[in-house]
Design a protein that fits this description.
Layout (H helix, E strand, L loop, with lengths): L6 H14 L2 E5 L6 E4 L1 E3 L2 E6 L14 E7 L5 E12 L4 H13 L7 H11 L2 E14 L34
Antiparallel strand pairs: 1-2, 1-5, 3-4, 4-7, 5-6, 6-7
Helix pairs in contact: 2-3
Length: 172
């Protein structure tokens, strides 16, 4: 998709989608997009990745990413380019953002401050995804098809056994 949406309408759509986002699909380089829970704050999205948290290969080292957000109806409404900035535990931004992000973390053990300290100690990455450049796809430039892909190969797949029959049926 090389077409881009004009910036004024696109930037308003991106800003509104960011404000309502709970999950974002983030693609880095040529890798498939992964769904990440996120925190919308100051017209940007914040995500945490790393040991014991969600996996987003390559995001911690990336400079740019492609972000797709959904609308109120559950379908995709916009895809935009994001500038990726990694927050360091020593930065003032970390001290304000990490506890808010930790408070949003479901099933976290401990208080938000304890979770943020654990992220810093374990080497987790807190990344800021801010809009950069024109919108990649929105409205009429969104694809019409589902973009569903076949499942990727994995060693965890095994052959499904035949259904169990409790009572055998006799043949006459």
């Amino acid at each position: 998709m090389t077409d881009s949406v004009p910036d004024p309408a696109g930037s308003a759509l991106v800003a509104e989608a960011i404000r309502k986002a709970a999950v974002a699909w983030v693609a880095v380089d040529a890798r498939p997009a992964v769904a990440l829970w996120c925190l919308p704050l100051d017209d940007a999205l914040y995500v945490v990745t790393g040991p014991g948290e969600q996996a987003a290969p390559g995001l911690a080292e990336a400079r740019t990413a492609e972000v797709t957000l959904r609308g109120d109806h559950g379908g995709r409404i916009v895809t935009w380019s994001a500038e990726v900035t990694r927050l360091t535990p020593e930065s003032p931004e970390w001290t304000t953002v990490a506890p808010q992000l930790a408070a949003k973390r479901l099933n976290a053990s401990g208080s938000p401050a304890e979770v943020a300290r654990r992220w810093a100690a374990d080497g987790c990455a807190v990344n800021r995804l801010a809009p950069a450049g024109p919108v990649i796809a929105a409205g009429p430039t969104l694809p019409d098809d589902s973009l569903a892909a076949p499942p990727r190969a994995t060693p965890a797949v095994r052959r499904t056994p035949r259904p169990f029959r409790l009572h055998r049926v006799r043949r006459r």
